[in-house]
Design a protein that fits this description.
lyase; dTDP-glucose 4,6-dehydratase; alpha/beta; Rossmann fold; 12 strands; binds nicotinamide-adenine-dinucleotide; binds 2'deoxy-thymidine-5'-diphospho-alpha-D-glucose; seven-stranded parallel beta sheet; EC 4.2.1.46; 13 helices; dTDP-glucose 4,6-dehydratase activity
Length: 353
């Protein structure tokens, strides 16, 4: 038995693969294009592990996907592969259309052909699990209830619009062809191997290297944070117990303003690795120009997943952020590796005054 994971060298995909193989012996075929966000070092601990097969390639390469399906006969395909950074989708949306929409479509087509040829029993047991985001629901006002699965889709960025399109395609493959699909819509993740273009790892990295901690606009935007291993456990739960055709919201009940998040990181660093001049890292905070179309608030109502499938997050924001800061302090070599080269060009272009 095996599963195919796409995007398994990225932040959440790598955490998922590592957690999966730590918990059971079922092989993982990991298909990843290795864009700037994919990093084989995330999977270094699996280098001699025969249960992990890494294949560099594109989910939009229908022939390659068909070959992998024929060769490994997986019982499930889990689609993590995506362009994932909202700011990059604003400065260059094309790659988001290609991978998130065209790529998901090609992957679905290859999986449909494979699935249709399976014997009846295997056909009903097969699952296509699509990993999506809460951003498809748009932005909430301060008093609005948290997103439920029944909320209408109102994506506001090229990133969220491309994810919304992929979610719709996934849904259509169940309704039209009967492919047993599952979709998860998760809130903001954080934890080990998070690429330092995103708020939490960027702030930790910039703090430790004496750089500005850039806060967009007034810093009062709200995100609902979930420690990455809790997202991984939610995906395992949905894969095992989810009902085909259903979507499941995943979140940590941890709504925080961006400014609160950055202040919390500074407080932890002030204790764990105080600045040599004795000042707080908060003195490095700088308010910068806002993200265009910046969504004000996301909040996830995860009660369907909790009540129907019995999932619960193990970490609070307090425990998860402590672990995360510790991980970055202990893994500076990983940070140094990913912040060399092309990373610098992105930071220069994005944060130019
Ligand atoms: P990431 O950017 O860290 O990793 C994406 C991975 O996909 C990389 O390894 C990259 O090389 C690979 N990839 C990109 N294009 C590919 C292609 N065409 N073919 C094969 N591989 C390709 O992203 P992440 O934060 O780990 O997010 C993973 C998934 O979870 C995405 O679908 C994202 O939309 C979703 N998601 C992310 C969050 C979050 O907070 N990070 C929250 C909810 C949902
Ligand atoms: O909600 C789930 C989504 O969370 C995922 O689907 C995306 O893939 C993931 O990137 C994340 O999107 P966000 O845009 O919320 O994450 P990001 O870390 O880029 O930003 C978090 C908040 O912090 C957001 O309000 C923008 C703000 N921000 C971000 C950066 C990079 C800043 O204030 N300064 C920054 O430098």
């Amino acid at each position: 038995m095996s599963i195919i994971v796409t995007g398994g060298a990225g932040f959440i995909g790598a955490n998922f693969v590592l957690d999966w193989l730590a918990q059971n012996d079922e092989a993982v075929i990991n298909l990843d294009k290795l864009t700037y966000a994919g990093n084989r070092n995330n999977l270094r601990s699996l280098v001699d592990d025969a249960r992990h097969v890494f294949v560099q390639g594109d989910i939009a390469d229908a022939e390659l996907v068909a070959r992998l399906l024929r060769q490994y006969q997986p019982r499930a395909v889990l689609n993590f592969a995506a362009e994932s950074h909202v700011d990059r989708s604003i400065s260059g949306p094309e790659a988001f259309i290609q991978t998130n929409i065209v790529g998901t479509f090609r992957l679905l087509e290859a999986v449909r052909a494979y699935w249709q040829a399976l014997p009846e029993e295997e056909k009903s047991a097969f699952r296509f699990l699509h990993v999506s985001t809460d951003e498809v629901y748009g932005s909430l006002g301060t008093q609005d209830p948290a997103f439920k699965e029944s909320n209408p889709y109102e994506p506001n960025s090229p990133y969220s619009a491309s994810k919304a399109a992929s979610d719709h395609l996934v849904r259509a493959y169940l309704h039209t062809y009967g492919l047993p699909v599952l979709t998860t819509n998760c809130s903001n993740n954080y934890g080990p191997y998070h690429f330092p273009e995103k708020l939490i790892p960027l702030v930790i990295h910039n703090a430790l290297t004496g750089k500005a901690l850039p806060i967009y606009g007034d810093g009062q935007q709200v995100r609902d944070w979930l420690y990455v291993s809790d997202h991984c456990s939610a995906i395992r739960t949905v894969l095992k117990h989810g009902r085909p055709g259903e979507t499941y919201n995943v979140g940590g009940w941890n709504e925080k303003t961006n400014l609160d998040v950055v202040n919390t990181i500074c407080n932890i660093l002030d204790v764990e690795q105080p600045r040599v001049d004795g000042e707080s890292y908060k003195t490095q905070i700088v308010f910068v120009k806002d993200r265009p179309g910046h969504d004000r608030r996301y909040a996830i109502d995860a009660s369907k997943l909790e009540k129907e499938l019995g999932w619960k997050p193990a970490e609070t924001f307090d425990t998860g952020i402590q672990k995360t800061v510790r991980w970055y302090l202990d893994n500076q070599a990983w940070v140094d590796d990913v912040t060399s080269g092309a990373y610098r060009n992105w930071i220069q272009a994005q944060y130019a005054a």
